[in-house]
């Protein structure tokens, strides 16, 4: 039940953030910048619900919560289910290339506009990025499966599909707005 945090900077020895550790915390947005979560290179795992439903309280300033995964190359490997769901984070999120697993609903209903997905991710789980305003969606070549409703209501204008995608779940791109340009579904897609 933390109230009115502005910045959380984790120490360089922290390797894991447990389930629901900061769920429903309240951040304060100030006149010169937004609140921030700053992770160090030592972090390997972010648990389920760890930062879900974060709120921002400010009368005049409504900046989203910025996220930094470290100044050097991060070692983060797992982002748990619902890890940031319902939190106003963004607008730019770069999921480090070290990440190999992102749980279902991990970034659902955030404030993400620009997204860079790890080039080592094998699966994009159900509802992972649903409800965001992502301009461009680029599915990396490492990805073989896109879950149900993974990008539901994302308002995307551009979609690039990785060459190794084999399955696309029900309604994975439903209500994505106006996808422009050619959309090529490769022969690798089986379902």
Summarize the structure.
By secondary structure, the protein is an all-beta fold. It has strands spanning 7-9, 16-17, 26-28, 36-38, 45-46, 55-57, 66-68, 78-79, 92-94, 101-102, 114-116, 123-124, 136-138, 145-146, 158-160, 167-168.
Descriptive notes:
- This protein is an all-beta fold.
- It is built from no helices and 16 strands.
- It has strands spanning 7-9, 16-17, 26-28, 36-38, 45-46, 55-57, 66-68, 78-79, 92-94, 101-102, 114-116, 123-124, 136-138, 145-146, 158-160, 167-168.
- The strands form six sheets. Strands 2-5-8-10 form a four-stranded parallel sheet, with no helix packed on it. The chain has a three-stranded parallel sheet with strand order 1-4-7, with no helix packed on it.
Topology:
Elements: E1 7-9, E2 16-17, E3 26-28, E4 36-38, E5 45-46, E6 55-57, E7 66-68, E8 78-79, E9 92-94, E10 101-102, E11 114-116, E12 123-124, E13 136-138, E14 145-146, E15 158-160, E16 167-168
């Amino acid at each position: 039940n933390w109230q009115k945090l502005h910045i959380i900077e984790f120490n360089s020895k922290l390797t894991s953030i447990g389930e629901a550790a900061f769920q429903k915390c309240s951040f304060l947005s100030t006149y010169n910048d937004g609140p921030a979560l700053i992770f160090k290179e030592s972090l390997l795992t972010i648990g389920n619900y760890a930062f879900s439903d974060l709120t921002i309280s400010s009368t005049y300033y409504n900046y989203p919560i910025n996220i930094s995964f470290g100044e050097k190359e991060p070692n983060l490997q797992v982002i748990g289910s619902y890890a940031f769901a319902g939190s106003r984070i963004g607008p730019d999120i770069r999921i480090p290339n070290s990440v190999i697993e992102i749980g279902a609903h991990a970034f659902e209903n955030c404030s993400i506009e620009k997204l860079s997905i790890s080039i080592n991710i094998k699966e994009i789980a159900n509802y992972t990025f649903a409800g965001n305003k992502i301009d461009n969606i680029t599915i990396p070549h490492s990805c073989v499966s896109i879950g149900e409703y993974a990008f539901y209501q994302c308002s995307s204008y551009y979609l690039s599909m990785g060459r190794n995608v084999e399955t696309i779940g029900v309604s994975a791109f439903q209500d994505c707005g106006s996808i422009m340009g050619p959309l090529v579904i490769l022969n690798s897609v089986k379902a």
